[in-house]
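Re: your question from the hallway

Yes, I did run it. Sequences:
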Amino acid sequence: MNKITRPVATSARTVDEITGGRRLRRMRRADWSRRMVQETRLTVDDLIWPIFVVDGERRRDPLPSMPRVERFSIDVAVKEAERAAKLGIPALAIFPNVDIALRDQTGSHILDPDNLINRVTRAIKEAVPEIGVITDAALDPFTSHGHDGILRDGIIVNDETVAQVAAASVLQAAAGADIVAPSDMMDGRIGAVRDALDSAGFQDVAIMSYATKFSSAFYGPYREAIGTSGLLKGDKKTYYLDPANAAEAIRETEQDVIEGADMIMVKPGMPYLDIIRQLKDEFALPTFAYQVSGEYSMIEAAAANGWIDGERAMMESMLSFKRAGCDGILTYFAPRVAELLKG
Ligand code: PBG
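Structure:
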């Protein structure tokens, strides 16, 4: 036990002497003044909703590691897109859970114009043309090993992967994608996708670069959602970024900007707010955060246990992205945030 052996020293100065009369709490005194000085604001326009899709009809598969997130069949995804549009959410990002029988060593099914991601894109753009559709141009939902690249002799081969992702981007654009998001971190992918889109006549399709995608533990629940967790051998360290590296994140982003990225994204989000701020200041491009599955699930799990107020934590996390410099956030919370903002 700590025994106090000397009298506790209290300051000889008054608080006003200490602060020079500056009282920072004044503006926090009332709700009206807090609202008046609020620096960062969240609106529905800041939200992008990532959705998981699967073949079948009338399916809403619950995802055990992502409470309240469901995997939709195409018909349900269209209804959800309508709901999102009504809420004012500007865009969806689509992630397919591809039939295991269609996955192979090279992810060749990504080149099928009628694969799941292309079919759902077409269906949504047909029924709800006013909502933006972002497609993930990556091989991982299509490979039998869960990697984002073509795997040969234990190596993810860069250039062949880039060629395949570029070709797949054209198919996604043809299906109606407004924004293609190459997410595999291969070298040269942004320039190759831009060239491929342009030569196919898709000059107006934008590229959202997963400019800094870190090799992260926070993707766990996503891999369950698209069915790659059981498949993935090894890790993605030879192509995703080391979580320790901020300077490298700037170099990666600079390269994507040179190659033609229209917007950039940082992924995961909350553990990388410093990167978001640096990229926004450095490149002044539309900058997005992907609040990934593990971040979502952490908040949900703590809330389910009664350890935190889930709704407040959700909104606070959104504000943190805006404060860090984000123009928008990809988040599984999107419809709930939108509903809450609507009041
Ligand atoms: C890979 C990809 C990942 C996510 C989306 N696309 C990461 C991965 O599996 O390595 C993660 C999204 C999330 O965790 O919410 N192309």
